[in-house]
Design brief:
alpha+beta; about 20% helix
Length: about 150
C-alpha cells in the first residue's frame, strides 16, 4: 500500500490516460526529464502543497482523523503553433470532463475541484511549447495512524 496522496496521483494518471484521447497515452506522473517534441502533446501530474487539520475531537488516538486538501497540478504541454490556444482548450475540456466524471477518484477522495488554470509559454525546449496548468484541489480523509487508507 502507499500514502493516499500517491493513490490520488495514480488515480489522476489512470483517469487522464483513459479520458484524454488528444494526448494518446502520454500522461506522466511527476516527470523529471524534459519532454521531447516527439512526445507532445503530453500531460504531467504532480503533487503540490497539502494542508490538513484534525477532524475528530476528544476521540482516542486511533480514531482521530485528518481532513486533508492536496493540490494536484495537471500540466498540458503542446507545440507552440498558430492553433495552440485551441489545442490546449480542447485538451483541457477532456481533462475537466475526465476528472468531473469521477470526482471522488474511485472513492479515495471526498471531492476533486478545479481551482485554477494558467497558460504560459516556454522556449526552454527544442521548440517553443505552450503549457497549461490545471490545478485541482482534492479533499480526502485519513486517520492519524493509517495514512495509507482513505476514510
Amino acid at each position: 500500500m502507499s500514502h493516499v496522496r500517491k493513490q490520488i496521483r495514480d488515480q489522476f494518471v489512470t483517469l487522464l490516460t483513459a479520458g484524454v484521447t488528444l494526448v494518446s497515452s502520454r500522461v506522466y506522473a511527476t516527470r523529471v526529464y524534459p519532454l521531447t517534441q516527439a512526445k507532445l502533446p503530453a500531460i504531467t501530474v504532480t503533487i503540490g502543497s497539502e494542508s490538513s487539520g484534525l477532524m475528530t475531537m476528544g476521540a482516542t488516538m486511533g480514531s482521530k482523523s485528518l481532513d486533508r486538501t492536496v493540490d494536484i497540478a495537471v500540466s498540458v504541454y503542446e507545440n507552440a503553433t498558430a492553433s495552440l490556444d485551441s489545442a490546449i482548450d480542447a485538451i483541457a475540456v477532456q481533462i475537466e470532463e475526465a476528472i468531473g466524471a469521477d470526482f471522488t477518484l474511485g472513492g479515495i477522495a471526498k471531492e476533486s475541484v478545479l481551482t485554477s488554470t494558467s497558460i504560459d509559454f516556454s522556449g526552454e525546449t527544442e521548440q517553443p511549447v505552450g503549457i497549461a496548468t490545471l490545478t485541482f484541489s482534492v479533499r480526502y480523509v485519513t486517520s492519524l495512524t493509517d495514512v495509507e487508507t482513505a476514510r
